[in-house]
Write the C-alpha cells for this entry.
Amino acid sequence: MAEMTVIMKRELWSFFLSPIAYVAGAAFLFVPAFFWFSTLFLNTGGATEAHMSNFFGYMPLAMLFLASALTMRQWAEERKIGTLELLLTYPVTTTQLVTGKFLASFFFIGILLLMTASYPLTLSLFGNLDWGPVIGGYLGTWLLSGAYLAFGLFASSITKDQIVSLIVSLVVLLFMFYASSLALIVFGTNHPGLIEFFTVISPATHFSSIARGVVDLGDLLYYLVFCSFFLFLNSSVLELKKRVG
C-alpha cells in the first residue's frame, strides 16, 4: 500500500508539471461551460428553469478527450525514454504501478470536477436547482472518467507513441460509448439480443442513468468491473514485458 501511495503521489505531482495536463484541463473546464452558459443565458428561446442537464450532456465527450490526453503519455512515454524497464525493476508489483497511475489520474480529474462546483452554485442563485441530478451528474462523470482512464492506460501500455495511444483511446472509447446507437443503425430491430448486448456494454447507458440522479447498484458494478478488467489487462501487459525483458 505504501509503495502504491508513493507512485500515486509521484504521478499526481507530475500532472501539475505537465503542460499537456494544463491545456487539457483548461479546455475541459471552459469549453463545456462556455456552450452550457451560452445555451442557458444567451439563447432567448432556451429553457429558463435552473438545471444542468445540458452541461452534463457535454461531459462524456469532454471527458473522453481529457482522459485520453492524460493517459496517452503514462506508459508510452516511459517506454519511449527507456524508464519503463527501470520502473519494472523497482520493488513494487505491476498491479501497484498500474493502480498508482490510475488513482493519480482519477484524483486529478476529481480535482478538476471540484473546480466546476461554482457552476451549479452560481445557477442556484437564479432558480430552485434540483441537486439530485447535479450530484448524480458529477458522480456519473467521475465514474465515467475512471472507465476512460482505465482503458487509456491500457492503450498506452501497448504502444510506444503518445499520439498512437491517443488515437486508439479516442476511436475505441467513441465506439464503445455509441455502441448501442451504432448497433441499432447496423442491425436495425431485427436482432434485439445484439442491441441489448451493445446497450449493456456501452458506458453511455450507465452514465445516463446515474446522471438522472438514479444511482443503481448495477451501474456502479459496471464501472467497477470495467475499470478492473482493463487495469488487469494493463498489469498483464507490463508483467509480460517484465518477464520478456
